[in-house]
């Protein structure tokens, strides 16, 4: 009969998780949970194992099981926050980290995690403020230092942006994914110049990362001088397209009423713009391959 206690299993699992040996950890946890299905420590380690293996749904279900019986469990609340962030459910994640900070106001890593959440939402001033607050409790907290460095990098406060990024990734390798998310968020918001800057520096730091190279190339095309007439659609998406069509509709009518010749010229110009918007991006992509 196996006399290993849950606490001993947890020690073994912790050592395995630190080395990312999740398969072996999962085997130990399954056996231990078979005899101790409600053990909070084992359940949390099972949830963290699922989190590390990108099994978000399974991890979330386990965390909710723990929180149902222990709503103030710190590790469960932290993992719940991380799972929400990973699923890009930022609005739901914010109250979770706020409550953790309320209960642990001097815990610097929570300020760093909240700052990281604000970076995802592109709220740079708030991210910087939170990180600076966390550094008051722990001047060496890596999450807070990383958040401030990312803010400096995005705002280009450091003229040596390539060197700044190299230092950031050397001391805070987890920041690479945050910067990718920031670049995507900037692109979606229409801040193409800033998104291009972030993506290009990331490519310089990670030249073998194919998705990053593709993103940087697409942003290079989008910010080409010949794409300036497309700015409203790039900046505002379908809303920009609708506005352009409405302006064209009323503008052509006004021009035609003012003068048939002016109406004809305006119609030709608009048709040229339509053909340009449909064909030029594809042509430019062929002219400027990766």
Structure, explained:
With 290 residues, the chain is an all-alpha fold. Among the domains are: 1-100, Serine Threonine Protein Phosphatase 5, Tetratricopeptide repeat; 224-290, no CATH class. Helix content is 79%, strand content 0%. The chain has helices at 6-18, 22-35, 40-52, 56-69, 74-86, 90-103, 108-120, 124-137, 142-154, 161-171, 175-189, 192-205, 210-222, 231-236, 238-258, 260-287. The termini are far apart. The model has no long low-confidence stretch (mean pLDDT 83).
Which key features would you list for this structure?
290 residues; mainly alpha; Serine Threonine Protein Phosphatase 5, Tetratricopeptide repeat; 16 helices; 0% strand; elongated
Strand content: under 5%
What Rg do the Cα atoms give? 26 Å
Global shape = elongated
Mean pLDDT: 83
Give the helices and strands, then pairings:
Layout: H1 6-18, H2 22-35, H3 40-52, H4 56-69, H5 74-86, H6 90-103, H7 108-120, H8 124-137, H9 142-154, H10 161-171, H11 175-189, H12 192-205, H13 210-222, H14 231-236, H15 238-258, H16 260-287
Helix pairs in contact: 1-2, 1-3, 2-3, 3-4, 3-5, 4-5, 5-6, 6-7, 7-8, 7-9, 8-9, 9-10, 10-12, 11-12, 12-13, 15-16
């Amino acid at each position: 009969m196996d006399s290993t206690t849950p606490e001993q299993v947890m020690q073994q699992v912790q050592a395995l998780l630190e080395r990312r040996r999740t398969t072996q950890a999962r085997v130990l946890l399954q056996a231990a949970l078979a005899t101790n299905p409600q053990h909070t420590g084992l359940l949390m380690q099972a949830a963290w194992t699922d989190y590390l293996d990108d099994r978000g749904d399974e991890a979330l279900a386990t965390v909710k099981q723990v929180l149902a019986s222990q709503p103030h469990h710190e590790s469960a609340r932290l993992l719940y926050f991380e799972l929400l962030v990973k699923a890009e459910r930022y609005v739901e994640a914010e109250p979770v980290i706020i409550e953790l900070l309320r209960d642990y106001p001097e815990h610097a890593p929570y300020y760093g995690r909240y700052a990281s959440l604000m970076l995802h939402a592109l709220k740079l001033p708030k991210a910087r403020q939170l990180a600076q607050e966390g550094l008051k409790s722990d001047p060496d907290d890596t999450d807070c230092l990383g958040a401030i460095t990312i803010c400096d990098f995005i705002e280009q406060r450091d003229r040596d942006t390539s060197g700044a990024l190299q230092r950031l990734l050397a001391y805070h390798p987890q920041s690479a994914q945050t910067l990718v998310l920031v670049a995507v968020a900037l692109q979606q918001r229409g801040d193409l110049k800033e998104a291009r800057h972030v993506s290009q520096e990331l490519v310089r730091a990670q030249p073998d990362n194919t998705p990053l190279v593709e993103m940087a190339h697409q942003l290079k095309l989008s910010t080409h001088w010949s794409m300036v007439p497309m700015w409203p659609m790039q900046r505002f998406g379908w809303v920009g397209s609708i506005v352009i069509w409405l302006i064209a509709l009323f503008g052509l009518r006004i021009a035609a009423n003012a003068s048939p010749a002016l109406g004809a010229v305006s119609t030709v110009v608009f048709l040229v713009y339509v053909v340009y918007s449909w064909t030029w991006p594809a042509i430019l992509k062929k002219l400027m391959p990766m």
